[in-house]
Amino acid sequence: MAEHDYIQETTSQRLRNWILVEMLRGAGYVAVVLLGIGAIIAVIYLVSLALPDDSKTEPGPMPFSTLQAAPAPAQG
To answer: What is the C-alpha separation between 28 and 34, in angstroms, rounded?
Structure first.
């Protein structure tokens, strides 16, 4: 099959166009990933709105999650 250059671009123009397409493809992939992360964050936020207010102010359900470290002894 013969390769016809219908738009008559030079080798450097063809390379430049290929680089542009590859960069735009990469930018598209990044946009999809960022939109996916944003959608996950939005779902988590919407779930948090459905929770009662007490769940946000009550202490944690684990007994050891509220323990605090003892203060260090004074140097003297």
So the answer is: 10
Q: How much of the chain is in helix, strand and coil states, percent to nearest 5? A: 65, 0, 35
Distance CA 65, CA 76 (A): 32
Residue-wise pLDDT tens digits, 19-72: 999 999 999 999 999 999 999 999 999 998 998 888 778 777 776 665 666 777
- The CA distances from residue 18 to 3, 11, 27, in Å, are 17, 11, 14
Amino acid identity, position 57: T
Helix, strand, or coil (residue 50): helix
Residue located via tokens 């202490």 = 59
Please indicate, yes or no, whether the overall pTM of this predicted structure exceeds 0.90: no
